[in-house]
Write a structure and sequence with these properties.
CATH superfamily of the largest domain: Alanine racemase
Bound molecules: pyridoxal-5'-phosphate
Distance between the termini: 32 Å
Number of helices: 13
Number of strands: 20
CATH class of the largest domain: Alpha Beta
Helix content: 25-40%
Largest sheet: 10 strands, mixed
CATH topology of the largest domain: TIM Barrel
Structural class: alpha/beta
Shape: elongated
Radius of gyration: 22 Å
Length: about 400
């Protein structure tokens, strides 16, 4: 599964580097106060990532994709920064509502919904919905005059780690038929959207999708297009190093400059904002020598906080908390999760100094699609989240 060396972990140059941002003394203090496994959500990182993306996408309205990490403290912080929200379920609608988010600051982006979910979103005051097929469009006939629809188009992407256009989105050729049906039924269509895939490694798929969407808008010139929603996809460095966000967004902005005047641009970032804002702290609870390797058993694994290794294809950078000699001896090791299932392996082949039961490991970039998809298999509880305003601030609040 995950092969990495500890030296590579520490050599990673993405900003902010955990070992600069999170000094060992602060982490040790947290470890002294909270039982592992736990996540640390640093709200100053949320600020940093949000502002970084907004600077790279000037003029684009950012709708945070709540599915990535729905912790209330994160939502509240983003709300205070002026961020809007991408909601996909009634659960997410209820969360946003409970935190004082306004419906008009949200879009409902799930292309397939129960009628009940449409009604719940409307009750909340959210009237912009994504659809991608005729059956879904028909569900909006009773709500004509109340809703504004965005049609999601599929642009397949081989280079994205998670190709979301496989499951959702219509072909460009289907657009005229959907638009015509909406027109006949007095349902307002206001925009196009797409998601070229999560953890996209090249911006060119997004830039091409923007140009194809603009061309489609120009062909369907009878529609008063209000918006183009360019989805999520903005990548972060896990084991692999990705383009700095300003470089990633440059070709995207160039393509957007060709948009007709008066068309607003929306984006739905999830990973880029959430991933770097959270780390996970785990303990070694058991150790065994099996064959040529040291096996370390952790108190969390792929059924818990590391679930993104299964569902999100992510490999999180890991490092021991205890200082070690980088020129010392490293042993080929396996990091296993705590459950009884043999699939529960966090790292199949990682080089580590000799570790002991009780030692702590830190996993970075654990904010997006981690705790969101964690289970309680074997009745191991999900790791709790400790919220810090800044990792150097000792006033941590456990939620
Ligand atoms: C509709 C939609 N919007 C936004 C996102 C967030 O994408 P990302 O995490 O790549 O920014 C997703 C992710 O699954 C999605 O399905």
């Amino acid at each position: 599964m995950v092969k990495q060396t500890i030296v590579e972990c520490f050599a990673e140059q993405s900003h902010p580097d955990m070992l600069e941002e999170f000094d060992r003394a602060s982490l040790e203090e947290l470890v002294a106060r909270h039982e592992t496994p736990f996540m640390v959500l640093d709200l100053s990182e949320v600020d940093y990532q949000y502002k970084l993306l907004q600077a790279a996408l000037p003029g684009v309205k950012l709708f945070y994709a709540v599915k990535a990490l729905s912790h209330p403290a994160l939502i509240k912080r983003l709300k205070s920064l002026g961020c809007r929200f991408d909601l996909a379920t009634s659960g997410e609608v209820e969360l946003a509502e409970s935190l004082g988010v306004k419906g008009e600051q949200c879009i409902h982006t799930h292309p397939i919904k129960k009628v009940k979910e449409i009604q719940r979103a409307l009750e909340f005051g959210c009237n912009r919905f994504v659809i991608d097929n005729m059956e879904e469009l028909k569900k909006f006939i009773p709500y004509a005059g109340q809703v504004e629809l965005i049609i999601r188009v599929s642009f397949r992407s081989k280079q994205a780690v998670v190709d979301l256009s496989r499951k959702f989105g219509c072909a460009l050729e289907e657009l005229p038929m959907l638009v015509e049906f909406a027109y006949q039924n007095k349902i307002e269509v206001v925009g196009l959207s797409f998601h070229v895939g999560s953890q996209s490694l090249s911006p060119m798929t997004q830039a091409d999708a923007i140009r194809a969407s603009i061309a489609a808008m120009k062909v369907m010139s009878s529609i008063r297009w209000k918006l183009l929603d360019i989805g999520g996809s903005f990548p972060v460095s896990y084991q692999e190093t990705v383009l700095p966000i300003a470089d990633f967004c440059a070709p995207v902005m160039e393509a957007l400059s060709e948009l007709p005047e008066g068309v607003e641009v929306f984006a739905e970032p999830g990973r880029f904002i959430a991933a770097p804002a959270m780390i996970e702290v785990v303990s070694i609870v058991g150790k065994a020598r099996r064959g040529a390797k040291n096996w370390y058993y952790l108190d969390d694994g792929v059924y818990g906080g590391f679930s993104g290794q299964m569902f999100d294809h992510a490999s999180y950078p890991l490092a021991p908390l205890k200082p070690f000699d980088p020129s010392g001896e490293f042993l080929s090791s396996v990091l296993a999760g705590p459950t009884c299932d043999s699939i529960d392996i966090v790292s199949e082949d990682i080089e580590l100094p000799d570790m002991q039961v009780g030692d702590i490991l830190i996993a970075k970039k654990m904010g997006a699609y981690t705790i969101a998809s964690a289970t309680e298999f074997n009745l191991y509880p999900k790791p709790k989240v400790v919220v810090v305003e800044d990792i150097f601030d000792t006033e941590a609040e456990a939620l």
